[in-house]
Design a protein that fits this description.
heterodimer, A: 359 residues, alpha+beta, Rossmann fold, OB fold (Dihydrolipoamide Acetyltransferase, E2P), 6-stranded mixed β-sheet, 5-stranded antiparallel β-sheet, 21 strands, globular, B: 221 residues, mainly alpha, 0% strand
Chain lengths: 359, 221
């Protein structure tokens, strides 16, 4: 569907990509400065690659060989920017209709009433952007991009400028859009939970290179996701099967090999895969499992190695074949005699386990 | 009240300044847009050429105009052969002189105004299907019009005050090419102090008024 095979240099930075995108919702996940926006700018035509080619459904968007380059206005790709960039001198209604094609192109045309309904912005139509809250502005920005009946939607961290509460309220709208319209979506973000909620396929982007691609749950549980996880301050990401989900007890039990991991309850079914994140410093090491305490998760594992980073000791621990990072102080390591091959117990509070996927 | 000579200088100045503005505004918008929004080889050269009359002594600018527009000059010669038009020392020469001299001020105002329009807004418009020209008329222009009006007013004021270049290329012919500043100069030379005072007062009033309006337009942004 979308073939990306190009290079783009900006100062010292270089983005290099050679992949074909086929899924409906594709997420690019990476830290800031990894080239996410550059990538979308090249796809939209705001920037031109240095060389290579870009194809969309067989149409050449850019080709250095054929010296062809389709200007952004001819691509019909809706672009939702991180800061919205609504036209300040136009009302919400005028913003939404700005990109409406002059000649209706058959059944590709999206009815603007549908957009207004789905994004619930009917009340805002006569307002100006400076009279909108952050969340409203972003919804209007999405509506504006949809209003042009795009062939492809590009979203550049559309939720990043919003606070956490707002994020969770806008995310369902994006999910509705995915369901309601038959438009492929390229979604760029550094939020793992957004990828989990929306994407059919995810790419990890690091320093201008794609380091891994795959189905989001699997990808984020793989070692290649580590840099991304570390960037968000989470060293351990696992995708584990659900054994029991009990609303009554308020817990969901996940299987970690033969052992069980309890996390706070979420609506799910046994057999489903649940991605979770645990920070290395939220795991406590104990030599004895028979302590009387409130923490529900006491896992047995073997230390496979240790690395010292800036005064912190990062243990690499094998629990039932899953490799986890555990952070301890140098003191603790010495006193407990934590060395390669030591078998010990790892205590994790249920509340320290973040569910990456909710619903 | 004003004498006929004073009125004629005043009217002539305002008429010439307005006509000149009408003339240079479209060109200024085009050049301002190019300078504000595009990068290309030779951009600083274009910028320098456009801005040159602002730093060049007006008499020198006038001298260049005189060379270009005289019957033996490249432009004046062509116009004379084609239309029998003699520009030098005509009212048209006044308009041309003040156009060249006020153009940098106008362009500077337009460039500043257009540069303040976020490029990402224009990019957003492009992705929504707008051609560069449509982006100019629907995004850049509406978002920078205050600054553009401000620049136009500054250019207009500069036109009213132009002396050196006008003198060089249009002369100082009462009722024909004698603008406000030239008239003031003339009245002082021949000792008609009262006339000079009245025109000085009027000039100051107009300059104050226009500058004040321009200032308010800038601030309101």
């Amino acid at each position: 569907m979308l073939k990306l095979s190009f290079r783009k240099r900006l100062g010292n930075f270089q983005l290099e990509i050679d992949h074909t995108i086929t899924e409906k919702v594709t997420a690019f996940l990476g830290p800031s400065g990894s080239g996410k926006s550059t990538l979308l700018n090249c796809v939209s035509g705001i920037l031109n690659p240095d060389d290579g080619e870009l194809l969309f459904s067989g149409q050449t968007l850019y080709s250095s060989q054929q010296k062809r380059c389709l200007p952004p206005e001819k691509r019909r790709f809706g672009y939702v920017f991180q800061e919205g960039y609504l036209f300040p001198h136009l009302t919400v209604r005028q913003n939404i209709s700005y990109g409406r094609p002059r000649s209706p192109n058959g059944n590709n045309q999206i009815d603007s009433n549908t957009i207004i309904d789905i994004l619930e912005i009917g009340e805002l139509l006569d307002r100006y952007p400076n009279q909108l809250s952050g969340g409203q502005r972003q919804r209007v920005a999405i509506a504006r991009a949809l209003g042009m009946s795009p062939r492809l939607l590009l979203m550049d961290e559309p939720l990043t400028s919003l606070d956490a509460g707002l994020k969770n309220r806008i995310l369902p709208y994006l999910y509705h859009i995915k369901q309601a319209f038959d438009i492929p979506l390229l979604y760029v973000t550094h939020s793992i939970s957004e990828v989990m909620a929306l994407a059919d396929e995810a790419f990890l982007l690091s320093d201008g290179q794609i380091t891994a691609r795959g189905e989001p749950h699997e990808l984020l549980a793989s070692p290649s996701a580590l840099p991304v996880a570390q960037m968000t301050g989470v060293e351990n990401i696992l995708a584990l099967p659900v054994v029991v989900a009990s609303e009554e007890r308020g817990v969901t039990e996940l299987a970690l090999g033969e052992q069980r991991l309890m996390v706070s309850y979420t609506e799910t079914e046994p057999g489903a895969t649940m991605p979770i994140a645990i920070r290395a410093r939220d795991i406590i090491v104990a030599m004895d499992p028979d302590l009387r305490m409130s923490a529900r998760n006491i896992l047995r594992g073997t230390i496979r190695g240790a690395a010292v980073q800036a005064g912190r000791v990062m243990l690499s621990v094998d629990i039932e074949g899953h490799l986890l990072s555990v952070e301890v102080t140098g003191d603790a390591r010495e006193q407990l005699g934590l060395a390669e091959g030591t078998v010990c117990y790892f205590i994790i509070k249920a509340s320290a386990i973040n569910l990456l996927w909710e619903g | 009240m004003l004498t006929a000579a004073e009125v004629s200088a005043l009217v002539l100045s305002i008429k010439a300044a307005l006509l000149s503005l009408l003339f240079i505004l479209p060109l200024g918008l085009l050049i301002g847009w190019i300078l504000a929004k595009f990068s290309f080889p030779g951009k600083s050269l274009l910028n320098t050429v456009v801005m040159l009359p602002m730093v060049l002594p007006p008499v020198v600018s006038g001298f260049f105009l005189l060379i270009l527009l005289s019957k033996r000059g490249p432009i004046g010669g062509l116009l004379f052969r084609l239309f029998g038009l003699e520009i030098v020392f005509s009212w048209l020469a006044v308009v041309l002189a003040i156009s060249v001299l006020s153009f940098p001020l106008l362009v500077r105002g337009i460039v500043t105004a257009m540069e303040s329009v976020d490029t990402q807004l224009e990019n957003a418009a492009r992705t929504l299907g707008a051609s560069p020209l449509k982006v100019f008329f629907t995004v850049t222009l509406p978002l920078s019009y205050r600054g553009i009006i401000g620049g136009a007013i500054m250019g207009f004021s500069r036109s009213l005050g132009e002396f050196g270049a006008t003198m060089m290329v249009a002369g100082n012919i009462p009722g024909k090419t004698q603008t406000l500043p030239l008239a003031i100069y003339n009245f002082v030379q021949i000792g008609q102090d009262l006339s000079a005072y009245r025109l000085v007062f009027l000039s100051t009033l107009i300059a104050f008024g226009t500058l004040w309006i321009a200032e308010r337009l800038y601030i309101k942004k």
